[in-house]
Amino acid sequence: MDKTFDMFWETEVPENELIISRTDLKGIITYVNETFARISGYEPEELIGKPHSIIRHPDMPKSIFKDLWETIKQGKTWRGYIKNLRKDKGYYWVYAEMSGVYKNGELVEFKSMRSPVSKEKKKQMQDLYDRMREKEGGDVRVVMYLPKAVYDRLESLSERLGISGEEVLSRLLSEAKI
Ligand SMILES: Cc1cc2nc3c(=O)[nH]c(=O)nc-3n(C[C@H](O)[C@H](O)[C@H](O)COP(=O)(O)O)c2cc1C
User: Fold this and answer.
1) Which terminus of the chain faces fewer neighbouring Cβ atoms within 10 Å, N or C?
2) Ligand 1 centroid vs 47 CA: distance in angstroms?
């Protein structure tokens, strides 16, 4: 079953540890370090050979990746904030730097390094990306804090009915006489 609420678990990205990946020219992962694998919740061998979009989070606007690819293909470095999707559907924010790897002047691969993001910046970027996705005409989700008891009731309803938490909420709302 689709467990919508899993998507709210955040993994903190450690300070002082490098998070590295490399891709071929099409964005297929060719290398990840141990820290990258741990934070994304995958084993390195589950990532190598897969498109980097395996960790793409639905909250990311399309235009960010368009800008990223245009920048690195021009031989420049792209820097920006990315919300990534973990294997368990949780998420983690990174500040990423991506650029080309050259051999004898020829572009052969792309590399990226990531570092942690402050709480304030994450909030700011979530807002910005929500607005960007709205403009792009995509799905927009918002993050809401609920009292634990309410959340627990939603989760148990979702399990009992075999539908996602999101579906429970939309059914409740469509039945509510308010
Ligand atoms: C070196 C490198 C690192 C990348 N790192 C990420 C990343 O951490 N998260 C992500 O969602 N996309 C990353 N991308 C971009 C993906 O290749 C892809 O464009 C993106 O996930 C959007 O998916 P889509 O192009 O299929 O729409 C990276 C690309 C390169 C070249």
Assistant:
1) C
2) 13
**Cβ atoms within 10 A of the Cβ of 146, count?**
12
138 lines ligand 1 (CB under 6 A): no
**Assigned token pair, 119:** 């709480």
Given a cut of 70, whether residue 4 has pLDDT beyond it is no
Average pLDDT, the chain: 92
Q: Find where tokens 């993994």 sit.
A: 11
pLDDT value at 142 more than 60: yes
d(CA 15, CA 90): 19
Count of CB atoms situated within 10 Å of the CB of 7: 21
Q: What is the pTM of this model?
A: 0.81
DSSP-assigned letters across all residues of 15-35 = TT--EEEEE-TTSBEEEE-HH
CB count, 10 Å around CB of 53?
A: 12
| Amino acid letter, 21 | S
Phi, then psi, of 107 in degrees rounded to 5: -70, 120
- For residue 65, how far is its CA from the centre of ligand 1 (angstroms)? 7
